[in-house]
Amino acid sequence: MSASGWLQLGLLVVALAATAPFLGIYVARTFGDGERRPLERIFGPVERTVFRVCRIGRSEQRWTGYAVSLLVFSAVSVLLLYVLQRVQGGLPLNPDGQGGVPAPLSFNTAVSFVTNTNWQNYSGESTMSQLTQMAGLAVQNFVSAAVGLTVVIALVRGLVRHRRATIGNFWVDLTRAVVRILLPLSFVIAVVLASQGVVQNFSAAKEVTTVEGSSQTINQGPVASQEAIKQLGTNGGGYNNANAAHPYENPNGFTNLLSMWAMLVLPFAMPFAFGRMVKDRRQGLAVLSAMLALWLVGAMVAMHFEGDGNSNLTPLGVDQQITATQPGGNMEGKETRFGPELSGLYANSTTGTSSGAVNSAHDSFTAAGGAVPLVQIMLGEVSPGGVGAGLYGMVIFALLSVFIAGLMVGRTPEYLGKKIQANEMKLVVLYILFVPICVLGFTAVSVVADWALSSLLNSGPHGLTEMTYAFTSASNNNGSAFGGLTGNTDWFNTTLGLCMLVGRFFLIIPVLAIAGSLVRKQAVPPSAGTFPTGTPLFATLLTGVVVIVVGLTYFPVVALGPIVEQLTQNA
Question: What's the Cα-to-Cα distance from 216 to each of 128, 210, 246, 431, rounded to whole Å?
Fold first, then answer.
């Protein structure tokens, strides 16, 4: 890896280290029991106005009521977004005259944005009106991220409260997540992006003549505002088809660094919030260490292989060395303003979170470099994961880890003073199994079905990777596309939509059920047989459990895809 690559990685780590702890404390004070909420004079009146206008009661809910509220809100959101797309042709703020979106694509897109997946089987600038982009897609970028945040807050309450029946109020938590965290941060990021040249207007597309004399369409619209929450909320859906590779979304190296920081800062802030809310800073640091280790390893692998170049091109006389006049490495599918190493870092970050934004073509990565984003999604996006979703995913793995440790020493496992028993472990197993069933099941059908294979650009190991990546991305609510797959068909619009629903709600419900089970328990004091969970040893165990569980689940398909391709490349 070059000095420039190390410098960019170092700058990103420093920026996160300087901001994530403070943001984590802010989140904990916003949602924690007994905490004095920050900036109450500013946000308090706004919150109370929302509660009054929407007639939101503030009494707390059991986990079942919390889950029902979340599911009803999400179902209504899917319906409204579906209808908005279908009728957008007759609505205002449509200067380019886009018509209604076809039904299968409307269903897929509505499910995609409500589940925080943002898988896009369309070109945003030519399919969606400005009204749909703002009132539909951008709104869901806010509330879908907020939903993930509410779930992890409910789970933490289940861990810290004793002999209670309630885990909070979904509507109150949702409002606070949007008003106090996502809106103000997005406003600042949008202003900075606009200052760097990211488009923010309501103009129609412009036809211009290039220096070569040909005609080109320059798309306009409210891009900066959507770009900000796209990254901060780990959504990833781009205003334009080229996503973060488009200069109107990501014009230079500074905005590229800012985008990576925005998608990583809240997920890395959550372990600090966790440590404060459970009143044990070491617990948060243990979770943070596991997240950081997985992210750093992925970053260095992707940056190394993309910076090292494609060995198949060397015999052809292609110069892939880094010099003063060229970035070197594997430049296929990359933007020259970012280069291969920053593209690898971005790919690792966007798939380690649930963002799914892309600044390069993952399909053009080397076999080993392309395996990194695939494996990061397979990990369940816990390195560091999406807003809220990353932390509750890692807490689920923590419960599994203490259960394994308890079996080893012959004691009932405990986590933060709560005994982890059969009821919780059944829910943990459901959480872990739902996504692999979707990924491996639909991939197995698709690789033998003619109607699915016809959508693939490539065959062999690379084609298998393309197919597996699509279902992995949808089921884990990432939304990034490997490329090489035509997804806008009835088969993929339907199956990928189902994967998104399962990957979101079939995981959220077990998490809330675990919160409801734990909140009723009395904390037990630690004893000589209690396995400490705020230590480097536990952080190592947690990291190992994540890798082993995911490896046992997905290794065969990874071996037949990117590993075989890499070995063939080096042969």
Answer: 19, 7, 15, 48
Paired tokens of 97: 């005259």
Q: How many CB atoms lie within 10 A of CB 530?
A: 19
- Which residue, among 281, 530, 272, has the nearest Cα to 418 in the 3D structure? 530
Q: Name the one residue in this structure whose structure tokens are 């280290």.
A: 17
What is the total count of domains within the chain?
1
Identify whether the C-beta of residue 328 lies closer than 8 Å to the C-beta of residue 322: yes
**Band of the pLDDT at 108, cuts 50, 70, 90?**
very high
Q: Which two tokens stand for residue 539?
A: 């952080």
Span 464-486, pLDDT tens digits: 999 999 999 999 999 998 888 88
d(CA 428, CA 424): 6
Q: Quick one: DSSP state of residue 179? A: I
Q: Do 234 and 316 touch, CB atoms closer than 8 A? A: no
Q: Mapping DSSP to helix (H, G, I), strand (E, B) and coil, where does residue 414 land? A: strand
Q: Residue 571 pLDDT more than 60?
A: no
Ordered DSSP codes for 354-378:
S----SS-GGGS-HHHHHHHHHHHH
In sequence order, the β-bridge partners of residue 456 are 485
Crossing angle (nearest 10°) for helices 460-475 and 422-446: 140
Q: Which DSSP state fits 456?
A: B
Mean pLDDT of the chain: 93
d(CA 278, CA 415): 11
What is the distance between the alpha carbons of residues 481 and 473, in angstroms, rounded to a whole number? 7
208 bridge partner residues: 216
Backbone phi and psi for residue 501, each to the nearest 5 degrees, phi listed first: -65, -45
CA distance 72 to 456: 36
What's the pLDDT score for residue 345? 96
Residue where the block lists tokens 């279902």: 471
Q: What tokens does 346 get?
A: 């971005």
Task: Note the residue count of the chain.
Answer: 571
- Is residue 533 within 8 Å of 402, Cβ to Cβ? yes
Q: Quick one: which of 33, 300, 22, 6 has its CA closest to 166?
A: 33
3-state DSSP assignment of residue 419? strand
Angstrom CA distances, 303 to 6, 140, 241, stand at: 9, 32, 25
Residue-wise pLDDT for 556-569, tens only, equals 999 999 999 888 87
pLDDT at residue 497 in the model: 93
Q: Which residue range is the domain that position 337 belongs to? A: 3-570
Distances (CA, A) of 384 to 377, 458, 477, 559: 11, 31, 14, 25
pLDDT band at 325 (very low <50, low <70, confident <90, very high): low
Considering only the C-alpha atoms of the chain, give the largest distance between any 2 of them, rounded to a whole number of Å.
79
Would you call 211 exposed, middle or buried from its count of C-beta atoms within 10 A (0-12, 13-18, 19+)? exposed
Q: What are phi and psi of 419, to 5 degrees?
A: -70, 130
Query: Distance between CA 128 and CA 138 in Å, rounded?
Result: 12
* Cα distance between residue 43 and residue 49, in whole Å: 10
The closest alpha carbon to 12, from 306, 348, 329, 336, belongs to 348
- Burial degree of 192 (CB within 10 A; 0-12, 13-18, 19+): middle
